[in-house]
Sequence to fold (565 residues):
Amino acid sequence: MSAIFTEDRGTVPFAPAVTRPLALRRGAADWHARWIMVFLAVGVAARLIRYLLRFPLWGDEAMLAMNFLDRDYAALMQPLDFHQVAPLLFLWIELTAVKLLGFQEWALRLFPLLCSIASMFLFHRLARLLLQGTALVLAVGIFAVTYSGLRYAAETKPYGVDLMVSTLLLLLAVRWWRQPDDVRWLWALAAVVPLALGLSYPAVFVAGGVSLAVAAVLLGARSRRGWWVWGLYNLALAGSFLAWYRLSIGGQAGAELGMMTRMWDETFPPRDSLLGLLAWLARVHAGPLLAVPVGGDHWGSIGTTLMCLVAVGVLVRQGRYRLLVLCSAPFVLNLIAAGMRRFPYGGHMRLAMHLAPLVSILAAIGTMAVFTWLSRKRSTPRQPQPVEDCPCEPLTRPLVAALVVLLLLPALSTARDFYLPGKEQQEIRKRDFAVWFWGSMERDHEVVSVSADLKQIFPPPGASWQNCVSPQFLCNARIYSPRQARGQSPDLGRVSRQWPLACVQYWSHMTPYDPAAFGRWLDGMKQRYDLIATQRYPMLQDNDDDLAPEPPDHVEVYEFVPKAI
Fold:
């Protein structure tokens, strides 16, 4: 096995790489480069395939996308509808994509896709500055095939952006760390951090961790000019955070923090006992927080957790404290925010995307250390392998198995995507219904949405209007209604007995409404039109096996014609 770390130019001594014959080193470099190219190609292909499959919008995506239907750039600075929170720059870029390309799935997901693909190549550059040999291959492979990276590359949410922004900040920091006398990279950090915080909320933890890591390097380098730039970087970090907070974060937090605090209560560290805190930390780290490349609840990430612990031991034993600070500081800052009940620590893999680059590096270091230990245990003095007979670094069975498993992960994920091109079957049914319904109904009717076009919503007393509409139904209508896709308003002047008016209303079993208010609207319509037909279309739900079946939602269509004279 090759050395794990690249040669360091900083203040902490690095162990020299093992001297190998030139042919061996070239052969090892060749297969390392080939495997890296394979992982990058597979990662790009898996992301593109998921994007091109054009999954239907699911609940969270549709609720965020609803804010791009009628808002302008200034209105996105206000608290979002449907209890959504997202960074302002991300919202502005999404709205720009909608304005340029139209309101449809590909436009909404284009920016997250580009960010996810860019993050792989940024991470490759980052890992090359820290690791070498097989450890580098493992790190790139783990990062490229991580399921959360594949999934959120094709969703209308900012999680793929979190991944790219954190990777970029880490890359700039390590690039400077490799040449501490060149402060241009610190200037680049100071210039990038305001944009980073405008694109990603958890980027503040990575940016803060970078500040601590840079300070650790400067303590050894004793660079007065570096300290000046570091101070300006922190001013940019604090100033930009306050500016974004005033522009949008404060409003979103004021509207949604109470609800989100209750929703993410289990992601905040307990304060009642030390044993409870330790048990919580173990459960959280072995859960979704470290779901790289895969993992989840119920100790699903225990393997990655163990590899990260091994990596921490390697870093401590070899005295690589700067890398240890860089890898641990964002976790600590995130944990402090969780202790203040301001941001979740764990809970779901989408909330830890900003930590995925660090987890990938630690997991690769820990895995490489285990493989090195296994290779030493297997080797015996009686059967040495001549270096001249080995064209490249030996591929042990555990290493081959690990590489194959990593390649299988995106293959299985992509196969699943082809089999079920959507988050759940009900999302596919709702989209298929929208494609059929709006296209066929608008051939011989003037079709209007009661809530979107007529602005008629029937909330019961004390309820919000947002509880009485279906974001998925309204978003699918905007995409698949030929009239709405063209941005045209309904033309009620066309309504005749040959061209009826069809009023469409989505009724959800989960959202209440005021029957009396709806009755008054219907009576008002009957005063102007004759109601000639009512159609009802049930929308089946996906029910969990352990829960009672949910009643279906349904779409009702009320057909009107002008009153006979």
